[in-house]
Amino acid sequence: MPTNLPKEYFLIEKDYSRAKTLDEKIELLKKLISSVPKHKGTEHLLADLRKRLSKLKDELEVRSRKSSSAKKEAVRKSGDILVSILGLTQSGKSTLLKRLTNASVDIGSQPYTTKELATGVCFFEGVNVQFVEIPSFFRKKDMNIAHTSDLLLILDKNPNDAENIEQFLKENKLQNKRKIFYSNFRSDNELLKNVIIQSDFIRVFTKPVGREVGKKAIVLRKGSSIKDLVKKINEHWLEGFKFARIFDNTKFSGRQVGLEYTLKDKDTVEIHMM
Q1: Residue 183 in contact with residue 157, Cβ under 8 Å?
Q2: What is the DSSP string of 128-188?
Q3: What letter does residue 91 receive in the DSSP assignment?
Q4: Predicted TM-score of the model (pTM)
Q5: Which of 1-5, 132-136, 187-191, 268-272 is predicted with the least confidence, judged by mean pLDDT?
Q6: Residue 141: left if φ>0, alpha if ψ -120 to 50, beta else—which one?
């Protein structure tokens, strides 16, 4: 045992020895890990604490599966962009999800109020953004949705939170996933704008000939062409495609382009057929 541990560590350890539920033990183990100074002398202690934490989370996952074996849990992508919300317990995940999407979620003052995945969709600047709240247990079955997400939204109240979550991401092989940190944004509007920017998508609006521009965007990967757009709308249209007009904020707005033209975010496209 390292001799330079802070007093806080021993107080938390005392609470941990008295804890009776798995939820309490998991929460206190996370606090223990956070309280340990990070240097060579504490490497073995940290490794042991993280190993114990992993075993408790596995045990919690097994219990969760048994208690909910009657209902198969699955979150299907229902938006254009899928964002997983991750954070430690009581970091405000449920509050944010409700505020952004008006999802029906429980918000409580006790740790680990959210036991299962929760999801909601908000419409922003032409795009349906789907958010999924990942419970703070970081169970493997819940982290699967993070792997399929287009972006991770990390709720970090302080640098220590961010460091702990980065460790969980590494344990789940998600350290290289696209992610943004909530603390970097001053408003929900700024957050949503960055969700679209960082998710590596562009929004393309379509305008039928002689009619108004549609309010719902077609979402494509950056670098997509007119051909990709047409294929997403109706692949059979490629056979009768004549040209497209691009409307944007340049002096060449309204210009005529072909199938190979590379689209930009917020381009408006008018497709002309033979």
Answers
A1: yes
A2: EEEEEEPPTT--HHHHHHHHH-SEEEEE-SSHHHHHHHHHHHHHTT-TTS-EEEGGG-SSH
A3: S
A4: 0.73
A5: 1-5
A6: alpha
